[in-house]
């Protein structure tokens, strides 16, 4: 099996701390995190992204930055917010199946009703660990969260909040009265409709942050979540004309952040981190996994009416699929895994640790074995490093239409995402060769602001990128392999990962059946 290695030019910048030398921190009064949803690092160029390119060349470029798996928005939004892998924060997918919330089928993990019901059932522990915003406010600091997409709510979902720390998400607000101010500061315009590129919504949200949430002053911590280039890349693939226009739009919103800070004379007092939640791939072939299972005589469903033991709920997640076997019938789970190992679309298969299935990895190998959601199998689709019609490397077999974009897999092009950081606490003109990840954002933000995490985090403080910071531990890269013989073929899969000290980052994974 050919093991592809991601070799595209990458620009990534982040920030890192926990409590080392005093020279590392205390230089900035404010920290701002700006998320470009779906931004691939190989599109950070002076002609496409002049503002981000300036930030990268005048700050730190994190060359080996990683998303968490599953490489989707809600998973990585929560990883950025908590500094924890899905196994510890409780969000393993954009859409999951929790019978206690909805017996009949999957629901969006960022959905307001699911969040409120989840918190109600768990006594406030819908997320299993606290977020950056919650930790900072507990320490007496102010926050401001603004997101074009509802994922922003996962950063700061609590209704109880001080008046000087608001959140605007998907055109809504907490406290609700804040929405009137956001509309007023947007020339009395309500949240716009969805378009491709989604410029109007992103511009509205940026103004809601800089004009409404910052009206009485810039808080210690702010987060702005933009919907582009994700929306446009889904529509026409990364590298398309619309995707490039979307990247330009996000760069203009970053310019508005610069402008707002300059007007307040705060630019030299502010650390800015630009991160993406995941990378992106182009669909080379569309498949329908549900129909594949029906054809193979499995009792497969996209939504349960009244589930019976052994029924399989198929939850498509772009570059991956979660399978929930009702009552966790082991014989059905084994048969399902063995079927997937014969297909032309499966890449890597994970199973629950207590069910040891030949040719699969346990869910804990990729840090997806959380306690509150229990899929029986997770499958990442097969991918290659070949180029799309847009000239962009990274193809994937997935549910969806050929030529459109998707993400969520263990492809190196989904896992390798953007991180750039600049400001008084960061080195200048520094390319960080040490691996980093979205799970490092939260511990780094807290370190920059002098606040200790209230619970242990999976991520690390990126000391090597900070003024006065020492080197990180030497990275160690390893590869897991699993195989199973089946008739004339042998299924084989691998998972490549790198550790820096105790922190783990997933580099890529793939698989296929090959003749024996």
- What is the fold-level CATH name, i.e. the topology of the largest domain? Alkaline Phosphatase, subunit A
Kindly state the mean pLDDT as a whole number? 94
Which blocks of ≥5 consecutive residues have pLDDT under 50? 1-22
CATH A-level architecture of the largest domain: 3-Layer(aba) Sandwich
**Number of DSSP helical runs:** 13
Report how far apart the termini are.
12 Å
Question: Class by helix and strand content?
Answer: alpha/beta
Assembly of the depicted chains: single chain
CATH class of the largest domain: Alpha Beta
Number of structural units classed as domains: 2
Counting DSSP E segments of at least 2 residues, the number of strands comes to 26
User: What is the radius of gyration computed over CA atoms, rounded to a whole number of angstroms?
Assistant: 22 Å
Helix content: 10-25%
Strand content: 25-35%
Can you say what the CATH homologous superfamily of the largest domain is? Alkaline Phosphatase, subunit A
Report the major sheet. Answer: 9 strands, mixed
Strand order of the largest sheet: 8-7-6-9-1-10-21-2-22
> In one word, what is the shape?
globular
Secondary structure blueprint with pairings:
Elements: E1 30-36, H1 50-57, E2 60-62, E3 65-66, H2 73-82, H3 86-89, E4 95-96, E5 107-108, H4 112-122, H5 132-138, E6 143-147, E7 167-169, E8 172-174, H6 178-185, H7 199-213, E9 221-226, H8 230-236, H9 241-263, E10 270-275, E11 281-286, H10 289-295, E12 300-301, E13 312-316, E14 320-325, H11 330-340, E15 346-351, E16 361-362, E17 377-381, E18 383-387, E19 393-398, E20 405-406, H12 412-415, E21 419-422, E22 430-432, E23 436-437, H13 441-448, E24 476-486, E25 489-500, E26 503-515
